[in-house]
Specification:
Layout: H1 2-12, E1 17-19, E2 24-26, H2 28-56, E3 58-64, H3 66-73, H4 77-83, E4 87-93, E5 107-112, E6 119-132, E7 155-157, H5 162-170, E8 182-183, H6 187-195, E9 200-204, H7 205-213, E10 223-236, H8 243-257, E11 271-272
Parallel strand pairs: 3-4, 3-5, 7-8, 7-9, 10-11
Antiparallel strand pairs: 1-2, 5-10, 6-9, 6-10
Helix pairs in contact: 3-7
Length: 274
């Protein structure tokens, strides 16, 4: 401390303190200098506090696939905002992987195998695949009591037509062309088409669960195909304990644990195909 005081006095060209044997007393220049120093320190402390609070509140940018964002995340974001009124959410719905080190995205929900080197990664929810349709679609003339009945209905696809082929093989179904039907370029549009009665879609558990819960969709068959991928919460390793990041992470997992979010519980009374 004495060295720092000496350096300051040399820089100012005046004596700020009188040195006694066991104490330091302010000189007259020191007394006149004190209010300005006190004001500067108070301003620094206030600015530091504001910066800290901005990390606790402010804008949280979340990256997620458009399908998951529109069907799964958006309907339940109000619960997060009610629990964290000082945090604003900016949702970046995109297929592109973001760079958490250099970009402005704070957290992400990624779909894959969980191999994201250099990132803090936690599995959020697994996913199952199974046919879904509108309750009005099966009729006495065109039932959906057996998987073989799919030959009489329109199949709904996203761009990955392999899903229907895999499910039909797992169910032991022959005589159903897995390539015919309507194709859409997004999974959420496939679910919307199924709700509108345009055909039978392969529902993904996270995307179909809300519509199943409120009766807009039904599962006509018992066969479930576990997906090879899952959804993961990711962020930069250095950011995991930032208050707003931790708040969002904790809310996601607690919401899933309470069973409020789709995909948090496995379907019941269904046959899972390993």
């Amino acid at each position: 401390m004495s060295h720092q005081i000496k350096t300051l006095e040399e820089a100012l060209g005046v004596k700020l303190f009188r040195r006694l044997s066991r104490a330091l007393l302010l000189t007259e220049p020191g007394q006149s200098y004190l209010p300005a120093v006190r004001d500067a320190l108070d301003m620094l402390a206030a600015t530091t506090q504001r910066l800290t609070q901005q990390d606790e509140t402010g804008i949280l940018t979340v990256s997620a696939l458009p399908s998951l964002a529109s069907i799964w995340l958006v309907p339940r974001l109000n619960r997060f905002l009610e629990a964290n009124p000082d945090i604003q959410v900016r949702l970046d719905a995109s297929e592109q992987l973001v760079d958490f080190q250099t970009g402005d995205v704070d957290v992400g929900i990624r779909y894959g195998r969980g191999d994201y080197p250099g990132l803090h990664t936690e599995r959020l929810m697994t996913e199952d695949i199974f046919p879904v349709c509108a309750p009005s679609l099966p009729t006495p003339d065109r039932p959906l009591t057996r998987p073989e009945d799919l030959r009489h209905h329109t199949l709904l696809h996203d761009d990955l037509r392999l899903d229907w082929r895999m499910w039909l093989m797992a169910a032991g179904v022959e005589g159903v062309d897995p390539t015919r039907g309507l194709t859409f370029n997004a999974s959420d549009i496939v679910i919307r088409a199924a709700i509108e009665g345009q055909g039978v879609a392969l529902g993904r558990s996270a995307l179909a669960a809300d519509a199943l819960a409120d009766g807009r969709l039904i599962k006509p068959f018992d066969v479930i195909l576990p997906a090879g991928f899952a959804y993961y919460f990711v962020c930069a390793e250095a950011d995991v304990e930032r208050p707003k990041v931790r708040a969002f992470r904790d809310w996601l997992f607690s919401d899933l644990a309470r069973g409020k979010a789709p995909g948090s519980a496995a379907p019941t009374a269904l046959s899972r195909v390993p």
